[in-house]
Amino acid sequence: MDSTKYSLADFYDIEGLDMIERAKHFYEYHQDIHKRHHNQYRRISLSGSAPVIKVLDPYTEIEREMIYMASNDYLNLTRHPRIIEAGRQALEKYGAGAGSVPLLGGTLDIHVQLEKRVAAFKGCESAIIYTNGFGSNCGSIAALLRENDVAILDLLVHASIIDGCRGTHVEYFRHNNMNSLEKTLQKCKDKYRTKLVIVDGVYSMDGDISKLDEIVNIAHSYGAYVMVDEAHATGVIGKNGRGTPEHFNIEGKVDIVAGTFSKALGVVGGFVAAKKEIIEYLHYYSRSYMFSTAQTPQTAASLIEAMNVIEDEPILREKLWDNIYYFKKNLIDLGFNIGNSETAIFPVIIGNDVKVREICREMHEAGIYVNPVQYPAVSRKLSRIRMSLMYNHTRQHLDRVLNVLEYLGKKYEIINQSGNEEVEIA
Q1: Is the domain 78-312 a CATH 3.90.550.10 member?
Q2: pTM, whole model, 2 decimals?
């Protein structure tokens, strides 16, 4: 099989083939991708999250160091000694797990402390915590919206939001387009019981910021509620790193603030913060909360300390933004298309899946760990390389990445060829 002629979409459902036959066809496709060194997924880290990591090379099976440009650990809090120590102490006090689902016997006092800390951090009355971010979005939306309701989604919202809307009506508006949002709200005005506009604070594939202040004003004028997923915003934007509502000075005006703990907070889990009545309702009707064992105590303790660190050490966020400004300016100066990126996420938009695979192969060989994003994750004309920054990437790290990108951009005719100079990438 020639894998360059196919995408993941081709194996999602093949007419006439049962699940085993379909999996066999996909396996053949996957084997060809690996043979071509185009498989940059599930590379095995031997050292955890850091600006430079040790990776078991999937093609040579040799350990090697790589500049890590694929982490959501923007403040590198996975490595912060205060956060590690808080988790260690909780592990020794409570043991390795909670022992039960939270609604029955698994709620520990450390969980309640985390819920209160999240609510305060997000400027909301109350909060509920989940074992993962996907479950927090999927479970809360499914609990709140039924067949007589409607979710009004930005076209680029996260998959967990889309999955959470399977039991309700869904309407979409064009990405960050306020005219499109208003037209959609007008269309839905008298048709549904509950109207909930759902957006990301920072969009994970494009790195741009939702126009949340405008969205809240428009939605509320039509009697709709607003939910924002703060996954990539928490710790990164806002004066104190509290996210998109703080960034726009509208804390307390967003009806539901959700997110994950697994990005800048450096741990794992999810949350929803809102009025106390909403949170109490979710305790009893959110299936991903009710039927999942409660968060581990060391996770909860580390998360409380992570929020403390974000507030106590603004220098981490300041250094991250220094890197963002530097990297963005240089990518633009080199002639790369990075869309509307505004934060620590940088898409290099190429629009050709085969070029994306080849460039990622060469970057891997050059010791730079980046992610290919291809159809159907994005449209074919927007296929890209996705990179993200950490506060402790050095200028030497970033310059190395920029030099390799410049060489490959010219080689694959993505940027201007003039002045093409040989750059050592191996």
Answers
A1: no
A2: 0.93
